[in-house]
Amino acid sequence: MSNVFYLSASKNYPEAVRAEGVWIWDGDGKRYMDGSGGACVVSIGHGVAEVRAAALAQMDAISFAHRSQFTTAACEELSRRVAALSPDPELDRVHFVSGGSEAVESAVKLARHYWRAVGRPDRYKVISRWTSYHGNTAGALALGGHTGRRSPYQPLILHTPHVEPCYCYRCPYGRTPADCGLLCAEALDRAISYEGPESVAAFIAEPVVGATAGALVPPDGYWQRVREICDRHQILLIADEVMTGAGRTGKPLALEHWGVHADLVVLAKGLSSGYAPLGAVLVRRAIHDAVRDGSGGFTHGHTYGQHPVAAAVGAAVLRYLEEHALVARSARLGAHLLERLREMADHPLVGDVRGLGLFAGVELVADKDSREPFEARHKVAAKVAAAAFARGLITYPGDGGADGIRGDHLLLCPPFCVTEEEIGFLVQTLGEALDDGAAALRRQR
Ligand SMILES: Cc1ncc(COP(=O)(O)O)c(C=O)c1O
């Protein structure tokens, strides 16, 4: 009997005992390829000695100093390295927290703080998108657009404005990228007008949607249009780069694919590659200065913000990323992964294969022609992921992408050190797991 309050009460979790590169071993000696970096977390790979050394050195020096009392060399270095992720020199202040949800909440509160500081306390609404995920704390959950995750907590979360996602495979307007005129971006413009631009503080979105839909890559022009709309209405743009940031899509920040700079960039996951709980908000200097000149500081924070060991780990991860040119590697190996995954397009369960860098999604459908999703009760993505796990491949399944409840996908986002041979294993094993899933569905019918 275990005392752990596990995620699932019905599942037996093997004990993870060791990891190296893209591989994890359990207590029985079974080897798994970490094809999803956990939940799109592990970026530089498992078992990097330099990160261990940095954490130990920091612990030897000092493990904890509260951010209300001290700064540390580790957090100074990390803030320089985080600022350097963006080519925009005005994005240069960094607020540290312990994870993605905290970082989202911090970005939203900072946007609110900013508008109060510049004498516009009427600006408080934050617009977000359906089919998105911003975290599980109440504020972040309210902004997210995943019905299954939100509905149990509905009475506890704020009702905030949401617009349609940029989801070309299931275009909410029934168009194709060739003829859509970016109606999904225009929806933001309309929502702002209906809400009243003077009441809107910010728009938050994932540059490439991850957990709720499996790597939704927008067409060129979408993000440029969104930036233009935000500027026209003087609304802050918050990029939630918790999954896509720190090199995952083949650029240091995903919005760089479209030459767009946000006002606040939310980071976590790959920032520390999972070696320590770490999140951050990269902030435009003008926002920082307005808050400083207004109330004197940001009335917000968490005990472990700026944690010295987490900061040392983050700095070591970003140093390693640079020294081993891993962002370029993510772009190169990501293109290879996508090419190999596209070989599966004919599989009866596969509706769409998409991605950017080492951030790929495979959407599973009941009918390839009509794109009809499976009924949620079949839990198809979870079944395929379980079959892959049994065969030694870890994927990150998700549901609800199609309409909040139905829709199945798998995220494939291995560490950037993955080799072409390991991608070969991933594709081969995923193919076998899809066959297992199809066979299980046939038995069920
Ligand atoms: C885009 C995005 N934002 C926020 C979060 C929340 O991060 P955390 O689980 O670290 O709180 C996630 C987690 O998956 C995410 O994918």
What's the quick description here?
The protein has 445 residues and is an alpha/beta fold. Helices cover 36% and strands 16% of the residues. The model has no long low-confidence stretch (mean pLDDT 97).
Task: Tell me the span between the first and last alpha carbons.
Answer: 36 Å
CATH class of the largest domain: Alpha Beta
Question: Would you tell me which CATH topology of the largest domain applies?
Answer: Aspartate Aminotransferase, domain 2
Globally, the shape reads globular
Helix-strand category: alpha/beta
Helix count?
A: 13
The CATH homologous superfamily of the largest domain is named Type I PLP-dependent aspartate aminotransferase-like (Major domain)
The portion of residues assigned to helices is 25-40%
Rounded Rg: 21 Å
Count of β-strands: 15
Main sheet: strands, sense, barrel? 7 strands, mixed
Which runs of at least 5 residues are low in confidence (pLDDT < 50)? none
Listing every helix as H and every strand as E from the N terminus to the C terminus, the arrangement reads: EEEHHHEHEHHEHEHEEEHHHEEHEEEH
Number of domains: 2
